[in-house]
Amino acid sequence: MLENITVVFVEPKTAGNIGFMARAMKNFGLKKLILINPCKLSKEAYYHAVHAKDIIKNSKVYESLNKMLEKENINLLVGTSGVVAGDRNIERISVTPEYLAENIQKNTAILFGREDHGLYSHELRMCDLILTIPTSKEYPIMNVSHAAAVIFYELFKKMEDTCEIEKEIASYKEKELLKKEINEVVSKLDMPIHKKRNAIKVFKNIIGRSFLTKKEFHVLMGIFRSIKRNI
């Protein structure tokens, strides 16, 4: 399963951190690295990668997250954030690394943000899940490569004892189609606009956490299309 996990580093600012990320990946058996609009890949990246130079050499580069999603076969998109939010902030409800490890699936991409600002809000909204590492309130924000190592460790620990999932999982694009269908149904309902927005956000969260199979995707698409025709 580890070979089906892709690490995505969004707009890294320094070549050294790219090297540290590759090294952490190598420590825990991860091989696929994608860089989104990165800084120049100087010798510093390879120096800090130590024995993980091959990960950098084989990495892919895209100019934007949208371009990557168009080209790559992604089923589950996981965003990382150091900001913990309560249940009232629907868009920021997060899971732990342990939860992700327990529910990992084929073609998962884990997004790590910029060293200074992390992932932006609109990028997190694109994700199926938001992952946060529990840390001390005195200093909650971790260095990006340190956070990555914690997450990779949990995945490695779980994957060592777990057989590959055999179910066919709905892809990211299929889940986006389902969300669009749900949005169209909700938009036709007779309810206040703010309640419609919250309903759409809640459905998005449920879909992200539910790990839909392709069979479940097709059944739900049929249900919501039927509802839409009869509203």
TrEMBL record:
Keywords: Methyltransferase, S-adenosyl-L-methionine, Transferase. Residues 5-153 form the tRNA/rRNA methyltransferase SpoU type domain. One of its GO terms (molecular function) is RNA binding. It holds the Pfam family SpoU_methylase. The keyword Phosphoprotein does not apply. CDD domains: SpoU-like_TrmJ. One of its GO terms (cellular component) is cytosol. GO terms for biological process: tRNA nucleoside ribose methylation. InterPro entries: Alpha/beta_knot_MTases, RNA_MeTrfase_TrmJ/LasT, SpoU_MeTrfase, tRNA_m1G_MTases_N. Transmembrane segments: none annotated. The keyword Transferase applies. Belongs to the class IV-like SAM-binding methyltransferase superfamily. RNA methyltransferase TrmH family. PANTHER family: TRNA (CYTIDINE_URIDINE-2'-O-)-METHYLTRANSFERASE TRMJ (PTHR42786:SF2), TRNA/RRNA METHYLTRANSFERASE (PTHR42786). This is RNA methyltransferase, TrmH family, group 1. It comes from Methanothermus fervidus (strain ATCC 43054 / DSM 2088 / JCM 10308 / V24 S).
